[in-house]
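Why does this matter for the project? Reviewers at the last site visit asked to see concrete outputs rather than summary tables. In response, this paragraph embeds two records directly. Each consists of the residue sequence and, immediately after it, the corresponding structure tokens. Nothing has been edited or filtered.
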Amino acid sequence: MLNSFSQGLMSTQLLLGRRRIVLNILEDLNSAIESGSVQHYVIIGDRGLGKSSVLNFIARELSSNTKTLTIMIFGDRILSKKQFYDQLVEGFLESFSKKKNLPVDLKENYTKALSTISSALSLVSSVSFGINLGPIIQAAFTALENKRTWRKYADQAIGSINRVSKENNFHTVILLDDFDTLIESLGSDFVQDFRGRISETTSTSLISTATNASFFTRNDQPFYSFFKIYPMESLTVEEVREFLIEKAKKENVSFTDESIGRIYSLSKGWPLYLRSLTREASLSAILDHRSCVSESDVEIGLRNMLINLEPAFRANYDSLSVVQKAILRAVSKGCNTPSLIYKEVKLPRGSIGPSIERVVEKGKLQKAGKASYKISDPLFEEWLREKSIHS
């Protein structure tokens, strides 16, 4: 059985309305493992909603279970297919060594050796675990030394991980953050190949996060109907209020109804912005020797945040074309339909649709309905609105 959650780990401050997603995934995974089946999961939502935090929390819970091995991979840091499988093997060996309770001095040497897979494999191969680690060691070592193709390496790595897990009564969970980024960067041949290999495993599950839902919901995509999908939405105003009430109890501050409403409208329920804005607004009140956070404190907090975010927002904005910038400025002013954007930007009518879609593909806009759009990042929208006013 998977470990139950402690009250501290499940606190409002840590998970912010994400308890149900975490519990559902872990309970479902537990049921699948107990029944001898394999299930895969993907958490889909906009950037900034806390998907990575939830994935890290799940990894933490799974790593404390004696029967699960966890491998964490960050999709936005993988540059090649070979690197992906290198990290898969590294993660497996590291997790396996921890569950086998190696002596302290050996753990220290092992950690140092993990700087390269070949040195890790050389060290591991000289240690007696009391089990047969030969298949995975030999597979990775041979692939590295002989420079075989990534498909050969993948075949041996995935197959050996699954086999060693099964032989030792472990269930391996690969946690893939930003899986859609990985899919885009490594291409269709990797995607098709990886799905095929994972589909054949009997002791390995995937838990992933993604921003682009189309890879998992369109029937022309390789991962269609492969994952159980868990949508992650913005926090509701009730969840934001719950967070602020909890914070007020812990830090001896209070929030007016107006300040709560303003924090919610600015953060749009994004956990990262909610935390930062609340911290800045609270600091404004404290510096003014007040214990009650007002709406004006929230505005001061917003100004401070926009100053801190200016370099990132400016670089993001400057990377766009003139037309894309104009579309974003138009939407920030409330022109949120193609016809209103057309009137504001004054592009040829036939080009407005494709131009908007390119901004959507870049993740700067998202559909808010059948024929309307909104800026994806709520504080980027505030920044744009401020720039438009002063331009």
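We now turn to the second protein, recorded in exactly the same manner.
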Amino acid sequence: MLGGVGACGRAFRLGFALALACGAFAARPAAVLAAALHAAPAPRAVFLSEDFELTFPPAGWGEVETAPDPYNWQQTADPAYVFAGTGAALVRWTNSHDQDESLTTPAVDLGWAVPADLYLSFWWRGTVFYADAADLEVYASADSTAWSLLWRMSDVESASRAPIPPPRSLAAPLDPWRQAVISVAAYAGGDLYVRFRYHGRNGDDVALDDVLVGTPEPPQPPPNDDCAGAIAAGYVLAGDSVAVEFTLDGNNNLATADYPLASGGSCTGYSHSGRDVVWVVDLEEGEALDATMTTVGGWDDTIFLITDCADPQGTCVAGDNQIPDGSTIHYVHTDPLPGRYFLIVSAYAEGVGSFRVEGAISPPVAVAPATWGRIKSRYRGEGEWR
């Protein structure tokens, strides 16, 4: 039997066919439950779209390299540097060489574009603190000869603009993935070239993903961004007569911070204000939930279990915030009546990126009734009673 919640509108325990019919997001042994955290409506018009998943540089793109590999634009599949999908473009920092590395799009034909709806959009990640040493700049041109500056990383406000330099690593939680959306309406009716230029020395790694010229829709949060969404989309875990193991793979880049915890009396031992996603957990009497969270890049994770989404602080029954990751919870439902809980998977402060939660829902442990004969036999076996 499987557990789930879906269009049927209430919790249930059911077979696989019924789970599908009701739209359930069901738990099953060794299941991989991957959240579609980057899903968004298709843009209304697309003139260029590049996700760096195939050949590199992409077909028609130009590349200028001044520093040796790997200190120029490279393709990467490292999840710590990929916003969505399996690939991104990356420049690694160095203090051994001056860098002036460029990626340039082919001519984008905007002959029939509507100026009011024309934008350049891209996702980027870097450490703004080091942008004064090595900056990412974006230029536009109508003829690939005369270039105009559109955007630069050093102009972005960031928590990493602190007096103490952050670590040189995209695993640092100070600078999450961000989307830049820039009007290119001035280029409607002709051609547009876009150049991504990384230049300087002794800066930090910079990653680039999902470049779009067109009319982008606002990015959408994941379906299980909050408790109501988790219920509606069927993100539900439930037990069975045997242990139900689960693996939850996801990403909180587009999530919102919905379930804060204050430091005083927090079930994790710390305050919490990070971007969170939710799984529903339905437990019967005696069933135990065990879950451990790890992150790609080692950003600081937080995981906790609540019964009322309107009062996370007051109804948290288990929580943990290990540093940097590896947060673990264990909870046993002791009430004779079934219970519904909400597993909040999140980050401490500004931590974002890919994560994995592995665990199990275990059935009640059967305990044989104690008798005087069993007690005496145990002690005789251990040599303490004769």
